[in-house]
């Protein structure tokens, strides 16, 4: 299932979503044009084996890694999901809270991945944990919104409207399934995908959105 758009657009200009999009695109350009792209990535990506909680310099990648991407498909898919679901979440959280929430979800996603693979020397990069937080918040706040979705049926593609709850629950379930499988298999066979960052970010986003709803902040 490939989401194309949600049928309920926000009533405000998604300034932070656009800023985050532009920052990610700019950093990706810097990656591509760096004299040594591998060195650039290793400098700013999260490498679990190098994390030392007594050394703040090793913790900075929990944030900087959120703006790196491993290729065109990686950044396009992340930014596509942010564009579709981010505007409504930004509207609900507000101008000051949304960027803090975005970074927080990304940090929790990074921590979740670190907990499961603390000795890994594979660089972890991408906005997936933060984007997953946006998806979790969207599911918590707008479960009944309809999402136009490209769906393959009997070898043909068709566009249908699916409840946000079902499409995001399906996405979350696939991350749990893939993450569980990656524990029992060689992680290299999964292309180094940070499934637990997705799971951690999603749960953090859902819980925080529900908590803020309960406290009447959103």
From TrEMBL:
Gene3D superfamilies: Rhomboid-like (1.20.1540.10). Keywords: Hydrolase, Membrane, Transmembrane, Transmembrane helix. It is a multi-pass membrane protein. GO terms for molecular function: serine-type endopeptidase activity. GO terms for cellular component: membrane. Residues 59-212 form the Peptidase S54 rhomboid domain. The chain crosses the membrane at residues 13-32, 69-86, 93-116, 122-141, 153-173, 193-212. It is found in: Membrane. Its main location: membrane. Belongs to the peptidase S54 family. This is Peptidase S54, rhomboid domain protein. It comes from Candidatus Daviesbacteria bacterium GW2011_GWC2_40_12.
């Amino acid at each position: 299932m490939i989401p194309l758009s949600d049928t309920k657009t926000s009533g405000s200009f998604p300034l932070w979503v656009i800023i985050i999009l532009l920052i990610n695109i700019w950093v990706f350009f810097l990656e591509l044009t760096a004299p040594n792209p591998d060195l650039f990535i290793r400098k700013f990506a999260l490498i679990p084996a190098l994390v030392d909680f007594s050394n703040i310099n090793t913790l900075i990648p929990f944030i900087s890694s959120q703006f790196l991407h491993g290729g065109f498909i990686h950044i396009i898919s992340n930014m596509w999901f942010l564009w579709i679901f981010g505007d409504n979440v930004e509207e609900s959280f507000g101008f000051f809270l949304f960027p803090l929430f975005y970074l927080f979800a990304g940090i929790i996603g990074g921590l979740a991945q670190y907990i499961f693979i603390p000795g890994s020397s594979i660089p972890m990069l991408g906005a997936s944990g933060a984007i997953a937080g946006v998806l979790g918040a969207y599911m918590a706040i707008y479960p009944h919104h309809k999402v136009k979705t490209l769906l393959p049926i009997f070898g043909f593609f068709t566009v249908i409207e699916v409840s946000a709850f079902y499409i995001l629950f399906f996405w979350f379930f696939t991350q749990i399934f893939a993450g569980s499988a990656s524990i029992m298999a060689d992680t290299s066979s999964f292309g180094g995908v940070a499934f637990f960052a997705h799971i951690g970010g999603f749960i953090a986003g859902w819980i925080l959105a529900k908590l803020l709803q309960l406290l009447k902040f959103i």
